[in-house]
Amino acid sequence: MEKRLLQLDYNMEKNVYMGHKKYLSRHHPYRLQKKNFDGKQEHGNPPQPLSGEAIYFKLKEMIFSCEKKCGKNNRESGNDYWKRRSNFFELPYWKNLHVRHCLNVMHIEKNVCMNIVGTLLDIPGKSKDGMNSRLDLVEMNIRPELAPMVTELDALQEDIVMTLCNLEKYFPPSFFTIMVHLVVHLVREVKLCGPVYLRWMYPFERYMKVLKSFVRNRNRPERCIAEAQVCEEVVQFGSDFLYGLDPIGLGSLNSREDKQIDKPLSTRTYVHPDMQQLKQAHLHIL
Fold this sequence. Notes:
- By secondary structure, the chain is mainly α.
- The chain has three domains: 5-146, no CATH class; 150-198, no CATH class; 202-285, no CATH class.
- Helix content is 43%, strand content 2%.
- The protein has helices spanning 52-60, 71-76, 105-120, 131-140, 150-170, 178-181, 186-193, 202-214, 221-239, 253-259, 275-285; strands at 5-7, 15-17.
- A two-stranded antiparallel ribbon has the order 1-2.
- The protein is elongated and about 105 Å long.
- The N and C termini lie far apart (94 Å).
């Protein structure tokens, strides 16, 4: 049985099994492609499964120092496949069976779907595409377009360190608080978590200003915020049933075109209501 297991350098807990091009037909075009696979052409034949007798005689000569989980000891002795000798081989007919263990279709289907969905949706803890996976591609020298952009980030890290060193030459020690020091760790966080704008606090700080404007009584700030939020929701809900009304902001483009408002907010405008509008306004105030 040909060795198909590959130990990754960065995902060290993962054992991967590649080289499925061997199972294709002899003249399949995928066999000659290198860039989209592991960088090699495939001209070999698929490995033949070992018979029960071959496995039995192979395990018969092996010495296992532990029971189920002894992977590290087995790898040191050159054994990457077998962790223990099955007790079923003590049965006289077991080594003559063509199928000794049935594949669990339910768990195979579940794991395949979980890997596909978790990677495509980038689900934390389920995705197989991370920084270590990209570094494994670099180590295997395949798919350079998926390699992490570490060169520009490393140059940025060096610029940050040089800037801080220049600041140390002219500023007193009291200048270098913990917030100034945290600048050194920004590049590392970008490498691990992605762009900064996906995590910064600017939108939350802006919304805190909106909530702060709701407070009219400092003794009851939570009540003021709750009442103002409910009022905005009611106005927003009611505006859905009124034509041409924009509850917040400058309004939509159509409403501005209907009113012929093409000046900034600071420009003074004059409104001349007719008699009917005056009567309606007077009745509304009363």
